[in-house]
Amino acid sequence: xxxxxxxxxxxxxxxxxxxxxxxxxxxxxxxxxxxxxxxxxxxxxxxxxxxxxxxxxxxxxxxxxxxxxxxxxxxxxxxxxxxxxxxxxxxxxxxxxxxxxxxxxxxxxxxxxxxxxxxxxxxxxxxxxxxxxxxxxxxxxxxxxxxxxxxxxxxxxxxxxxxxxxxxxxxxxxxxxxxxxxxxxxxxx
Length: 189
Prior knowledge:
Distance between the termini: 131 Å
Number of helices: 4
Structural class: mainly alpha
Helix content: 40-55%
Number of strands: 2
Strand content: under 5%
Largest sheet: 2 strands, antiparallel
Oligomer: single chain
Radius of gyration: 56 Å
């Protein structure tokens, strides 16, 4: 619905309502980053029967042109019973936050981290030592296999040599061979 000037009739209103332009000075937006409470009432303030304060000789005036105006009217040290809000919040935070458990926890964490790093280094050293020992053991095992093959070859050659000598001896000297065989029986027979 569009606003129409003729909708409101000024003669039928029970009381006079001022236009917005007359009171615009009281409602100008402020560029404060924080809210400022009005100063406490002075001793000259009296209350009437309707429980609203009546300001006498106070410096606070609602009809003043600087109502909620400059920041010099309201100092943060004089608002809220002379208490600086930033200092108050900082003191509350200091009282609520105890850094000692955090410091102890950080110290324990640093010690644990140091121990963990030391154990990790020790494990790496042991792993490297185990790898070196494994490499040496593999080299020894390969050398042992080679030696076993050589011994087997030598034993086979010796066995062939002994059996050829035995057949030669049995052919050249059959009588002595039978006597020696009777005296020292062979495990093969």
